[in-house]
Design brief:
The complex is a heterotrimer of chains A (about 450), B (about 130) and C (about 500). Chain A has helices at about 10-20, 45-55, 80-85, 90-95, 105-120, 135-150, 165-175, 195-200, 220-230, 250-255, 315-320, 330-370, 395-405, 435-445; strands at about 65-70, 125, 155-160, 180-185, 205-210, 235-240, 260, 280, 295-300, 305-310, 385-390, 405, 410, 420-425. By secondary structure, chain A is an alpha/beta fold. Chain A is globular and about 80 Å long. Chain A starts with 7 loop residues before the first helix and ends with a helix. Helix content of chain B is about 25%, strand content about 35%. In chain B, the strands form two sheets. In chain B, strands 1-2-3-9-8-5 form a six-stranded antiparallel beta sheet. In chain B, strands 4-6-7 form a three-stranded antiparallel beta sheet. Chain B is globular and about 35 Å long. By secondary structure, chain C is an alpha/beta fold. Helix content of chain C is about 35%, strand content about 10%. In chain C, the strands form three sheets. Chain C has a seven-stranded mixed beta sheet, sandwiched between helices. In chain C, strands 10-12-11 form a three-stranded antiparallel beta sheet, covered by helices on one side. A two-stranded antiparallel sheet of chain C has the order 8-9. In chain C, helix 6 (about 160-175) packs across helix 7. The chains are: A alpha/beta (about 450), B alpha+beta (about 130), C alpha/beta (about 500).
Chain lengths: ~450, ~130, ~500
């Protein structure tokens, strides 16, 4: 077995040193009745593994072999070759949480840089070292708000928040005595500001709004912030397509208390939905309640700049059942990938990716609007994703497109079975005009 | 090393009674166990506690410890200097590193606390369990 | 022409400063390498009309402080930073409980195949059969290894798996009429256990370990009332000790209608040797990044699948992955008793690819993982016995917990010993955990370490023990050879600096 470096002679010597006659003796403590070997096939060689998994991979259609317009929380943006190749370095790949700062300055400094990028993009003061993904980031933001606004039990969520984020919140809340009120979207596709203000009251600990929202519509952060602050609640800004942060007014500018969500589109491949890259940023005043890992700048014994994990007393390994969260790992390698990606694109590149994505989405909207029978139901401005109402059931329509090499969108019936006509189309800098034209033509022919 | 004029708890707080004012802090043993203190979470002045209630936390880099109030009373003062520079608690836990002052309502509770001698024995017994 | 070479060299040394010393010690922040006009990306020209349909009030200005930097500098920056990290590929990384073992590289390439890495979780099932089949296949092998009925792959990491497991327990008890109020957790448990039980709505009752470091059956009998939802037990526990009375423990918990939760963080010590399902375990999470060697990546991503017995199956997170009679695969969302979902999509899919590749490489010989890990830990134990104090001397599985009791008499503590190990070229063990061992040093060598490496580690630990007696100062001031010397964590916590700021802000 090529991952095991112990020779037969070594094993004999080691057993003698331990004072047992066989490795089996070391397992005598496990009751014999439960020592059952697994019924698995014989070991595979590397060649066979590549054949086996390569065969499974080949059964899928994906962003590199189709005209690709899928989004709804995971986006197909370009990641420079160097960002991924850097992840292969053993020093990044095969190290762990930087508990020992003297031998982990690389990871620590990279996290510190990641925290800074997130602050610059969101306009917030402090960001953590990353969280699992967008939905659990929203959960953590809500729980953090509840700790800061003691004694209130209700969260107000815009229905424009990703449906799987909202479902995750309900899963987490079900036994904590916390409840959720959802404020519907208006006919223009944006959260109804008046309904939002009316829903937030003295029992509300947080008001959360997503922009661009799940239908791609750009929300005005102000509506959520005002509703929250008028009722003494925390305001949470949710971002599921983080590229938008380079073009749209950041939540920090609008006065949000917490910004959180999904940063996959800033340097992480789609990975069939995971690993992704959750983020959470807040105001200095609330930094002691921020969940997850944090890296701080300090000095070493010789007075040189150094970094280390800090405020770890909030975490589960010290606080146990009183911890701010049960999370242990962050998304280390994905945060590194994102740091590299954001550093490469920088001030101008992140903006240009956002501008191109938006312009192509606008072109795509215009083309689809010209296809007979198709409608764009939302009148409000969108960023790079938008809802389309088809003249026929959307899911089978998109299946027919897939057979023609076009992954044309995500049917909303997945989350709302009653909504059979609508689907979401996402456009990024990766889409060419020719692909967009092909999508529009195919929609016309398939309906 | 534990001053004789103080009363001690099993959770390593002390209280000094001066008229109707009780000054509360953590012991030398407690600060040593915690290591260098980096943060104190203290109550608001005016808050009223019953004995044994949690009134704050003290944090070092690797540990956090809840603080339990030895006697009932209303908080009349918080040691702002210690909040600003928690290292004071390490340097002088029985003096400048005090935490809060409360207005005492009853003497009964004091009698249940340990003397310096009893506390020293208690700490020794705790150490041996390690 | 005459050139004064000496003077030139001296001048250039001064001008170049640190760059004449290739040893990577101080790398500026990426933001400090930025300079107006530099670019690190290229994009095709826009092939559609420029358009903005967004009102000015919803737009931002320039991202103040963001970088302008070339690809070359990014390559150097991250290469230099990487060299400040210790890694498994460098040497033994005995961080107890974290299972720092070799990460097979072919698995990395497999996870990056476009059919996985460029696939989208919401693509039609007709073009996602490969991704679904892979996830389904991973569930099948994890079922076989655990001896349990079904597995959800959704949880993002072990801690989320714990929460999923306890939510399922709660849902099952609620359906039978009473969710109960308390969860029992031994005092040796990982901190995530009590935190997860709390987020599932339970009070935590801590059980004191006995003098052997295991769970006391009398203590359990007494605590296990009909108000207790279950016991969260780490097997083997965090002292590396297998609960040899596991069958009796399960019996007691089940007799009162409770569930036995297994924290499978240490599954690597008996995977392929014994089956948790046969032990009476009802629900168990696994850490793919521990037992199944998906890379730790400087702190994640993890992945925490949860295996359950038949009676917990209705409560699994949504969706499950099903194989139809015709051999095709589909997602089943129609699970009315499901606890819901813990995150978006199917989970950390990229980790599924790596874990399945890893399991395939071992196949029916996967027990060798456990056998190697246990052999190595026992060898280290034999090598260090007498040099370091061993509070609990019950048989060791995959990790061994020593304490600094002997060294503390000389004023040297576990943290200092860990720092000194860095000078000998090793990563420190896990320090100060489990909490029930004062001055703990938790050592887990894993199966991917050979005798030579183990001997070197034992020699280093013995040398440090000798230094503690002869020259404690050298240990107290350690490390001496690392990129930075001892880092001021107290200063970091007292004066929080959590980001870089552009000078204008």
């Amino acid at each position: 077995m090529k991952f095991l470096p112990t020779s037969d002679t070594d094993r004999t010597e080691m057993l003698a040193a331990i004072g047992v006659s066989s490795v089996d003796d070391l397992f005598a403590v496990i009751p014999a009745s439960v020592r059952i070997p697994p019924d698995l096939p014989p070991p595979m060689s590397e060649i066979e593994i590549r054949r086996y998994l390569g065969g499974l991979a080949a059964k899928n259609r994906h962003a590199r072999d189709t005209a690709f317009f899928l989004g709804a929380g995971v986006y197909n943006h370009y990641v420079s070759s160097i960002a991924d190749q850097m992840l292969y370095r053993a020093e990044w790949l095969t190290s762990y949480t930087p508990y020992q700062p003297e031998v982990s300055q690389g990871t620590l400094q990279s996290i510190f840089e990641f925290q800074t990028h997130i602050c610059l993009l969101t306009g917030m003061d402090v960001a953590n070292a990353s969280l699992y993904e967008g939905a659990s980031a929203l959960v953590e933001a809500l729980l953090m708000s509840e700790r800061l606004v003691r004694g209130r039990r209700r969260a107000v969520l815009s229905a424009g928040i990703h449906p799987e984020y909202r479902e995750t919140v309900r899963t987490y809340f079900q036994n904590l005595g916390l409840d959720v009120v959802e404020v519907p979207l208006g006919p223009d596709g944006a959260t109804d500001a008046a309904a939002l203000a009316a829903a937030a009251d003295g029992s509300t600990f947080a008001v959360a709004v997503q922009s661009p929202n799940f239908r791609g519509v750009i929300e005005d952060w102000k509506a959520g912030v005002d509703a929250a602050h008028a009722s003494g609640a925390m305001s949470i800004a949710v971002v599921a397509e983080a590229v938008s942060l380079a073009l749209l007014a950041p939540p920090g500018e609008a006065g949000a208390d917490i910004a959180c969500g999904e940063a996959q589109s800033l340097g992480v491949p789609m990975h069939n939905g995971g690993p992704l890259l959750g983020f959470l940023a807040c105001r200095t005043a609330h930094q002691r309640q921020i969940p997850g890992r944090l890296v701080g700048e300090t000095r070493d014994a010789q007075g040189r700049r150094a970094f280390c994990l800090t405020l770890s007393t909030r975490e589960q390994h010290i606080r146990r059942e009183k911890a701010t969260s049960n999370i242990c790992t962050n998304q280390g390698l994905m945060a590194l990938a994102s740091n590299i990606h954001m550093s490469l694109l920088g001030k101008k590149g992140m903006r240009e990716v956002a501008v191109q994505s938006h312009a192509k989405a606008e072109y795509c909207k215009a083309r689809i609007a010209q296809v007979p029978g198709y409608r764009l139901p939302d009148s409000r401005p969108t960023f790079n994703e938008f809802a389309v109402a088809a003249p026929v059931a959307a899911a089978p329509l998109l299946d027919r497109l897939a057979a023609r090499g076009i992954l044309g969108g995500v049917p909303l019936s997945r989350w709302d079975p009653a909504n059979s006509a609508e689907f979401l189309v996402a456009v990024t800098e990766m889409n060419t005009r020719e692909e967009i034209d092909r999508l529009a033509a195919a929609l016309g022919e398939s309906s | 090393m534990n001053p004789d004029d103080l009363h001690y708890t099993q959770s390593h707080e002390w209280v000094r009674i001066d008229g109707d004012i009780g000054t509360i802090g953590i012991t030398e043993h407690a600060q040593k166990e915690l290591g260098e203190i980096v943060y104190l979470e203290m109550p608001e002045v005016g808050h009223v506690y019953n004995a044994d209630e949690e009134f704050g936390t003290v944090e070092s880099v690797k540990a956090v410890s809840e603080l339990f109030i030895p006697i009932s009373g209303e908080v009349v003062e918080v040691n702002k200097a210690a909040v600003a520079e928690p290292g004071i608690v390490n340097d002088d836990p029985f003096g400048d590193g005090w935490l809060v002052k409360v207005k005492v309502t009853t003497d009964d509770e004091i009698r249940k606390l340990m003397t310096a001698e009893q506390y020293a024995e208690y700490v020794q017994a705790e150490e041996q369990e390690k | 022409m005459s050139v004064d070479l000496e003077t030139d060299l001296a001048a250039s040394k001064e001008a170049l400063g640190d760059t004449l010393h290739p040893e990577p010690r101080h790398e500026p922040l990426v933001f400090e390498r930025s300079g107006a006009g530099k670019v690190g990306y290229s994009l095709p020209p826009l092939d559609v009309p420029a358009a903005s349909a967004i009102p000015a009030a919803l737009l931002r200005g320039e991202i103040e402080g963001e970088t302008e930097i070339s690809e070359v500098e990014v390559a150097r920056h991250f290469t230099r930073l990487s060299r400040l990290n210790f890694s498994i590929d460098e040497n033994l990384y005995p961080l107890g409980s974290c299972t720092m073992k070799h990460n097979p590289r072919t698995n990395e390439e497999m996870a990056r195949l476009p059919g996985f890495a460029a696939s989208h979780p919401l693509a039609p099932e007709s073009v996602s059969q490969g991704t679904l089949e892979l996830a389904w296949s991973l569930e099948q092998v994890l079922r076989e290894l655990t001896g349990l009925s079904r597995v959800t792959l959704q949880p993002s990491a072990g801690a989320q798996g714990e929460l999923a497991g306890m939510l399922m327990v709660r849902a099952a008890l609620t359906r039978s009429g009473n969710p109960r109020r308390t969860v029992l957790i031994p005092d040796s448990a990982h901190g995530t256990n009590p935190a997860s039980a709390h987020f599932a709505g339970y009070k935590v009752q801590e059980l004191k370990s006995n003098a052997r470091g295991t769970l006391d059956l009398h203590v359990l009998e007494e605590a296990m009332t009909e108000d207790v939802a279950g016991l969260m037990l780490t097997v083997p526990n965090t002292l590396g000790i297998f609960e040899d009375q596991i069958l009796e423990i399960a019996k007691i918990v089940h007799a009162r209608g409770g569930y036995l939760y297994c924290d499978g963080a240490n599954f690597n010590s008996f995977v392929g040797v014994a089956k948790p399902g046969a032990m009476g375990i009802d629900v168990m999470h696994m850490n793919l990044h521990k037992t199944f060697s998906t890379p730790h990546g400087g702190g994640g991503p993890g992945s925490g699948p949860v295996a359950v017995v038949e009676r917990l199956v209705p409560f699994l997170p949504r969706p499950t992955i099903e194989r139809r009679p015709d051999g095709t695969f589909t997602l089943d969302f129609d699970r009315p008793e499901s606890i819901g979902r813990l995150r978006t999509f199917l989970g950390n899919y990229g980790m599924f690819v790596r874990a399945l590749a890893y399991i395939a490489a071992y196949g029916n010989r996967i027990g060798e993982v456990a056998r190697g890990a246990v052999l190595n830990a026992n060898y280290i134990r034999a090598g260090l016995a007498g040099f370091y104090h061993l509070k609990y001397d019950a048989p060791t599985m995959h990790e061994v917990v020593f304490s600094d009791k002997k060294q503390a008499e000389h004023g040297v503590h576990n943290g200092d010993i860990g720092k000194r190990l860095m000078d000998y070229g090793f990563h420190p063990p896990t320090i100060s955990f489990p909490l029930i061992v004062h001055g703990a040093m938790m050592i887990e060598p894993t199966e991917t370490e050979g005798k030579t490496g183990l001997d070197a580690f034992v020699a280093a630990m013995r040398a440090i023990a000798a230094e503690v007696e002869s020259d404690p100062q050298i240990v107290l001031a350690a490390p001496h050879t690392t990129p930075v010397r001892r880092v001021d964590e107290v200063g970091a916590a007292r004066n929080l600096v959590l980001r870089w700021k552009p000078s204008a802000v």
